[in-house]
Design brief:
Number of helices of chain A: 15
Helix content of chain B: 25-40%
Number of strands of chain A: 6
Shape of chain A: elongated
Order of helices and strands of chain A: HHEHEHEHEHHHEEHHHHHHH
Structural class of chain A: alpha/beta
Largest interface: A-B, 20 and 29 residues
Strand content of chain A: 5-15%
Number of domains of chain A: 2
Oligomer: heterodimer
Distance between the termini of chain B: 39 Å
Largest sheet of chain A: 6 strands, mixed
Order of helices and strands of chain B: EEEHEEHEHHHEHEHEEHEHEHEHEH
Chain lengths: ~425, ~325
C-alpha cells in the first residue's frame, strides 16, 4: 500500500513535467514516423544495390508448373535460384545455417493447380537469418506465385468457356459474345486475387506453420522504438531515485515505518506503469495512427497474450536496469552519462535504431544486451506472426537480464 | 519517569573514518534537548542513526523504551524527523506533499485529512496549502518541512538544523512552533544547531558535540558557569611559562592558558617560498584568561603586562555564553 503511495506520488510528479511527457510519449511516435521512412529507403537501396539473394529451391514437383515458377523467380530479379531436389539435404543445410532459407515446392504442384486446388509454397528460414532479406525473398516469391496463379486461373476459365461453346447452336454461341467473355475473365481475375491458388507460408524450422503477415519497414521501427523508449524509462527510474536522495526526501522515507523493499518497489512501479502505457501508445500508433497518417499500419501479430507478456517483461527489465543505474551512478552527471550510454548504446547495438539484420556483422555483440532479445521477441511476434511458444527463449533471456540487473543493483544500492 | 531517549555508546564509522565516536546521553520526556556543534561535528549522523536512516556501527539507543536495533518499527512510529534538507517535492503543493507523507505513516481518509489540516494550522500555511512548494519562500518551505514531520503525532521530534537559510521572521515562527509543540502538546524535542542563540532560546539542556564526541552536557546555566566571570583573550608579543603562571595568579583570574595557534593548511605547490617568508615574521601568541570577575581581571592583566613591558597586540572580551563555552572547550569558534 505504501509502495503504491510512492508510485502515485511519482506519477503525479511525472505527469506535471511536460518535458518528460514529450520524451516518453511523443518522441517515440515522431521517431517511428521518421524511421519508417528512413528504413524504407535503406531497405529499398539495399535491395537494389545488393547482389542477388541466393534462394535454394527444393523442387519436389519437377514438372512444368514448378519450372514456370522457378523461371519466374529468376526473371523477377532480386533472387538467385539454387536448385535442390532433396528436401532432407536442404533441411540439414538450413539447420547448420549453411543456407539461410529454402523454398519448398510441393510434389503435386502441377496436378493440384490443374485441378484448381490451392498449392502451398513453404519458405523456411533459419531463426537467425537476416529478416530483411527473408522478407524481400518472400515478397518476390509471393509476387511470382500470384502472377502465375492468376494466369493459370484465367487461362483455365477461358479454356472451360471454349469447351462449353463447342458443339452448341449458333444462338447459344452468340450468347457467349465478347462482353460476356470479358465479364467472365474479370470475375475470374477478382476471384484469383481474393483466393489465390498459390499461397506462400513462411516458417522457421521446428515451428508450426504460421500464415505470413504483411510487413513493412514500419514494422521494424515500431517494435524497435517500443524497446528503445521502454528502456529509456530506466533512466527515469534512476533519476527519480537520485532526485529523491538529492532533495533529502529519501532520508525522510527511510525514517518512516516503511521497508526498504516497499521503498524500492514504490520507486520502480511508476516507471513500470509508464513503460506499459508507453508501449500501448506506441503499438496503438503503429496499428492505427500510421494509417491515419497515410502510412502502412503494422500488425500486432497473432498472439496478443504473448505480445502482452513480452511488453511486461521488457518494462520489468527496464526498471531493473534503472535500479542498477541508480546503484552505480553517484552524481547527476553520472546518471545522465551512464543512463544515456546504456539506454541509447544498448538500443543501437540491440537493434532498436538500426534493425538487427543490418547489424549482423557485429556477430555476438548485439546478443549481450537485453534490447536484442526484446527486439527479437517483438519481431517474431509482430513481423513473423509467431506465438508464445516460439519466443519462449527470448522471454526467458529477458527475465534473466531482469534478475541480473535487479540483484546487482540491490547489492550495490546505497541506502545511506 | 523513564527517559524518552537513552543513547548508549553510539558509533558510526565509514571505513577508517569515525564520524560518531561512541556518544551517550539521555533525553527526558517533555524536554527540549539541544545538540550544539559546528558543521561536520556529527550531529546529523547521530540523528540519522536514531531515526533509522542509517545503521549504527556499534552501540544502541532506546526510544520510548524500544530498542533501536531490535524494535526499529516501533521506534519509527514514535519518531518524527525534520531533516536538514528541504525534503519536499517542489512541483507538488504543500497539501499534496503532506498527504503523501501522511500515507507513508499509514494515515488514510478522514484521519489523514484532519492531520494535514492540523499541521498546516501549526505552521500557519493553511491559506497557501494548494500552491506548489517551489513557489514558496525559503522560510515557508522550512515550515512545510516541519509540518511533514508532525503528521503522525510523533512523541519524539528531531529537528536537524531547521532554520538554515531562513529569514528572521520565519525563524521566529519556527521557534514559536517548537516551543508550542513542547509546552502545549508535551512533545519531546531534540534540536540540533550550530547557532548557539537558538539553542539558548529553546533548550533545557545541551550537549556540545565536536569531532564526533560529546565534550560537555548540562543545562545552559551550568555550562556557562564553567566560564566563571567570563573569558578574556589577550594577544601578546611574547610569553613563557613563568609569565603564564604569574597571569593565572593575578587577583580575579581563574586560569590562564595558551590558545593553540590555528593549524595552517599545507602550502600549495609554488607557494612554498612565500610560506617560509611568513613564518619568519613573529606573530605573537594568544593567551586565554578565564576570569572570576572579568572587569577586575582586565585591569589586573593590563597592569601586569605594563609592569613586565610586554606589548599587548589584541584584546577580546568574550561574553559568558555557549559560544564562549565552545571556544573555551575546543579552542575554536562554533562557525569555523
Amino acid at each position: 500500500m505504501k509502495a503504491l503511495s510512492i508510485a502515485f506520488k511519482d506519477l503525479q510528479i511525472l505527469f506535471k513535467d511536460r518535458g518528460d511527457m514529450f520524451l516518453l510519449f511523443l518522441l517515440p511516435l515522431f521517431f517511428i514516423v521518421v524511421f519508417s521512412g528512413a528504413l524504407t529507403a535503406i531497405g529499398q537501396s539495399e535491395e537494389s544495390a545488393k547482389a542477388l539473394i541466393p534462394l535454394p529451391v527444393v523442387d519436389l514437383d519437377g514438372g512444368d508448373a514448378a519450372r514456370t515458377l522457378i523461371d519466374g523467380l529468376n526473371a523477377a530479379g532480386g533472387v538467385r535460384v539454387e536448385h535442390y531436389t532433396n528436401q532432407a539435404e536442404a533441411t540439414t543445410l538450413l539447420k547448420d545455417r549453411k543456407i539461410d532459407r529454402a523454398l519448398i515446392v510441393p510434389s503435386a504442384m502441377g496436378s493440384d493447380l490443374a485441378a484448381g486446388r490451392t498449392v502451398t509454397l513453404r519458405l523456411v528460414s533459419h531463426p537467425d537469418a537476416n529478416a530483411g532479406q527473408t522478407e524481400a525473398v518472400r515478397l518476390v516469391v509471393d509476387g511470382v506465385a500470384r502472377d502465375m496463379a492468376l494466369e493459370g486461373q484465367i487461362l483455365a476459365a477461358l479454356r472451360q468457356m471454349g469447351e462449353m461453346q463447342a458443339g452448341e447452336s449458333a444462338e447459344y454461341q452468340q450468347a457467349f459474345g465478347v462482353e460476356k467473355t470479358q465479364a467472365q475473365a474479370r470475375s475470374q481475375f477478382d476471384q484469383a486475387q481474393a483466393r489465390p491458388l498459390i499461397e506462400v507460408k513462411q516458417t522457421v524450422p521446428t515451428q508450426p506453420e504460421q500464415p505470413v503477415k504483411l510487413s513493412s519497414m514500419a514494422e521494424v521501427a515500431v517494435p524497435g522504438m517500443l524497446v528503445l523508449f521502454a528502456f529509456l524509462t530506466a533512466q527515469s527510474t534512476a533519476r527519480s531515485i537520485y532526485d529523491e536522495k538529492k532533495i533529502g526526501s529519501f532520508r525522510r522515507l527511510l525514517a518512516a515505518p516503511l521497508s526498504k523493499a516497499a521503498l524500492l518497489a514504490g520507486k520502480m512501479l511508476p516507471n513500470f506503469i509508464t513503460a506499459l502505457i508507453q508501449a500501448v501508445v506506441i503499438l496503438a500508433f503503429g496499428a492505427i495512427g500510421l494509417q491515419l497518417l497515410g502510412l502502412k499500419p503494422v500488425s500486432l501479430g497473432s498472439d496478443p497474450l504473448a505480445l502482452v507478456l513480452a511488453v511486461v517483461l521488457i518494462a520489468l527489465c527496464s526498471v531493473s536496469l534503472g535500479i542498477l543505474i541508480a546503484a552505480l551512478a553517484r552524481t547527476e552527471g553520472q546518471i545522465g552519462g551512464i543512463g544515456t550510454l546504456v539506454t541509447w548504446g544498448m538500443g543501437l547495438i540491440g537493434g532498436s535504431i538500426i534493425p538487427v539484420f543490418v547489424l549482423d556483422q557485429f556477430g555476438v555483440l548485439p546478443k549481450i544486451v537485453p534490447h536484442y532479445w526484446a527486439n527479437r521477441a517483438l519481431d517474431n511476434l509482430m513481423i513473423r506472426g509467431l506465438g508464445l511458444a516460439d519466443v519462449g527463449a527470448e522471454l526467458v533471456i529477458l527475465l534473466g537480464f531482469t534478475a541480473l540487473f535487479f540483484v546487482v543493483g540491490l547489492w550495490k544500492f546505497d541506502f545511506d | 519517569m523513564p527517559a524518552m531517549l537513552e543513547v548508549d555508546g553510539l558509533v558510526k564509522k565509514y571505513g577508517d573514518f569515525e564520524a560518531v565516536k561512541g556518544i551517550s546521553f539521555s533525553v527526558e520526556e517533555g524536554e527540549v534537548f539541544g545538540l550544539l556543534g559546528p558543521n561536520g561535528a556529527g550531529k546529523t549522523q547521530t540523528i540519522s542513526m536514531l531515526t533509522g536512516v542509517i545503521q549504527p556501527t556499534s552501540g544502541t539507543a532506546r526510544v520510548g523504551g524500544h530498542d533501536l536495533r531490535t524494535q526499529m518499527d516501533e521506534v519509527k512510529k514514535i519518531n518524527g524527523l525534520v531533516p536538514q534538507d528541504l525534503a519536499l517535492y517542489p512541483t507538488l503543493s504543500a497539501r499534496a506533499n503532506l498527504n503523501f507523507f501522511g500515507r507513508i505513516y499509514g494515515l488514510r481518509g478522514k484521519d489523514l485529512k484532519e492531520r494535514v489540516e492540523d499541521v498546516l494550522r501549526i505552521v500557519a500555511l493553511t491559506d497557501r496549502a494548494d500552491q506548489a512548494v517551489e513557489k514558496y519562500s525559503g522560510g515557508m518551505k522550512r515550515r512545510v518541512n516541519i509540518a511533514a514531520g508532525l503528521l503522525h503525532h510523533p512523541r519524539l521530534f528531531f529537528l536537524d538544523e531547521p532554520t538554515v537559510g531562513v529569514d528572521p521572521q520565519s525563524r521566529n515562527h519556527i521557534f514559536e512552533s517548537v516551543l508550542r509543540l513542547n509546552r502545549e502538546r508535551g512533545m519531546t524535542i531534540l534540536y540540533t544547531s550550530h547557532y548557539m542563540e537558538e539553542v539558548e532560546l529553546l533548550c533545557n539542556r545541551v550537549a556540545i558535540i565536536d569531532q564526533g564526541k560529546i565534550i560537555a552536557l548540562d543545562t545552559i546555566k551550568n555550562l556557562v558557569a564553567l566560564l566563571g566571570g567570563g573569558v578574556i583573550q589577550v594577544g601578546l608579543q611574547r610569553v613563557d611559562d613563568a609569565i603564564l603562571a604569574q597571569l593565572a595568579a593575578l587577583p580575579a583570574v581563574k586560569e590562564a592558558t595558551l590558545v593553540p595557534p590555528p593549524v595552517a593548511p599545507p602550502p600549495a605547490e609554488g607557494e612554498a617560498v612565500a610560506a617560509k617568508e611568513i613564518e619568519a615574521v613573529p606573530s605573537g601568541v594568544v593567551v586565554k584568561i578565564v576570569a572570576k570577575n572579568s572587569q577586575q581581571a582586565i585591569v589586573n592583566v593590563i597592569g601586569f603586562l605594563h609592569e613586565q613591558d610586554i606589548m599587548l597586540t589584541s584584546l577580546e572580551i568574550l561574553q559568558p555564553n555557549l559560544e564562549s563555552v565552545f571556544l573555551h572547550l575546543t579552542g575554536k569558534k562554533l562557525r569555523e
